[in-house]
Structure formats: C-alpha cells, structure tokens
Amino acid sequence: MKLDPITQAMVGNGVPKGIVVLMYHSITEAQHATWPWEVTLADFTAQLDYLVDRSIGVFPVGRLLDSDCPLSGVVITFDDGYANNMNAAKLMYERGLSATWYVVSNEVGAVSSWAKGSEQVLPMMSQAELKALDEMGMEVGAHSRTHCDLIQQSPQSIQDEIYGSKQDLENILSKSVESFAYPYGHFNNSIIETVKQVGFRSACITRSGWYRPEEDKLQVRRITVFGSDNVSTFARKLIFADNNVSWPKMMRYMTRRVMTRGA
C-alpha cells in the first residue's frame, strides 16, 4: 500500500484540507475491473485501509447537514445499488465506517436494466439487503426510479422519478430518505426545485471539486473512483479533489508552484 515517491512528496500526510465526496459504482470480486466504473474489492479494501491508517474521517452524505460536521474528511457514496456493493458495506462496517448508497428503486431485487454501451447488466440489491445496509448504520438515498436521464423527461415523469423513488425506498426502510443523486449527473434548475419540493435535503452531482459548506446542498460535488485508480492515484484525488490527477496535469501543477515561489 506504498505510494510512489513523487505522490508521497506531493500529498504529505495524505489528509485532505477539506471534505472530498467520493463516488463508486460496482465493486467486483474479480481480479481485474472490466469497465471504468467498477473497482475491485481488493482495490477498495486498500483504499479503505489508506483512509483508516491515516485516521481520515469517513462519513455519509447526511453528516454534511449537521452543524458540527467536520471541516475535513471523506464522504463515500455508491451509485445505483448493485448487489456486489454488500461486500463493500461489510468491509466498512468492520472498520466502523459508514457511507451513502443511491439506489434505483424500480430495480430493487432485479437487474440494472438501464445499462447500455460498456456498462454491465448486474444484479441489484434486494429489499432485505437494503434493510441490512440500514441496520449497519449506512445511509440509503434515492437515484430515481428507472435511472433515466431526467432532463429528457416530461414534468410529470420527473416528478414520478424523483418523488416515486423516495416513496419506494421509504416504504422498504420504514424511515425517511433524505438524499438524492441525479442519474448521469444531469440536472437543471427545474429538476433541482423538484428535488427540494419533494423533501430531499441533499443531492449529489458528478462534477468534481471540493465540498464547500456554503454551496447548495442540492449540488454536492463528487470525485469518481475508477477501476484504473491505484492507491497513489487515490491519494492524489483526495488532495486535489479532481477526477484528473494524471502525471501531465500534476507536472503542470508543480511547475506553476515552482514559478509562483520564484516570483
């Protein structure tokens, strides 16, 4: 779990100087990820251990709404609600950590029927597994009913997708569901207003950047963890709050710092 020397020099103790919200999707037991939005269980374990070893706080999205929310740390989220995420949940539970799962409510106990292109059709969590998540202290949020592109829907369909997903999950869990994630990260002002009106208190987008307490809680930025990310890449994402922490970009950053200091 060692970082490469350059990354180690760049990240120091590895503790982010603010809050970074991470986005995961599928967590596979296979040795290698087969599509970009899939992380192997081994890599996810290494990433959790990286956080724990450095005493970096890890918490769900709901914690962002608390008046005593920490000033730095990592929020972990999972989109879609794949059944293979239960292994990730158990790993987190064993380490005393919690996260937020955004679930496509119509597909509970079924498969990811919306998958297209390079996406895999995967089994989804069952009602029993969602209840188990809740019992482990995890947060369950909504990710629409069918994982459709909300921007392409009629006002009536948008209402059904957003409010319907909230109702579906609340019926399963017998508790309030207060967080939402926009499918494909697509939204507009009208969609945000609907999310607010139906009672969601937070919502996540896919644009990268730091979480900033003063910004709209219905547009929480997230950093994607890809299957190609190793521990060094993961460490840089925590420090720079960016999806792109490639070496060319890092070199440009270091060059600017050197030039600034020289000036």
Question: How would you describe what is shown here?
Answer:
- It is built from eight helices and ten strands.
- Helix 1 packs parallel to helix 7 and helix 2 runs parallel beside helix 3.
- It is globular and about 60 Å long.
- Helix 4 links the parallel strand 6 and strand 7.
- It starts with a helix and ends with a helix.
- It is of the alpha/beta class and 263 residues long.
Structural class by secondary-structure content? alpha/beta
Contiguous low-pLDDT stretches (5 residues minimum) are none
What is the average per-residue confidence, as pLDDT, rounded to a whole number? 96
In helices, the fraction of residues equals 25-40%
Helix count from the secondary structure assignment: 8
Tally of strands: 10
Relative strand content: 5-15%
Reading the helices and strands in chain order gives HEEEHEEHEHEHEHEEHH
Quaternary state, please?
single chain
Main sheet attributes: strand count, strand direction, barrel closure: 6 strands, parallel
* Backbone shape: globular
Radius of gyration: 18 Å
Distance between the termini: 37 Å
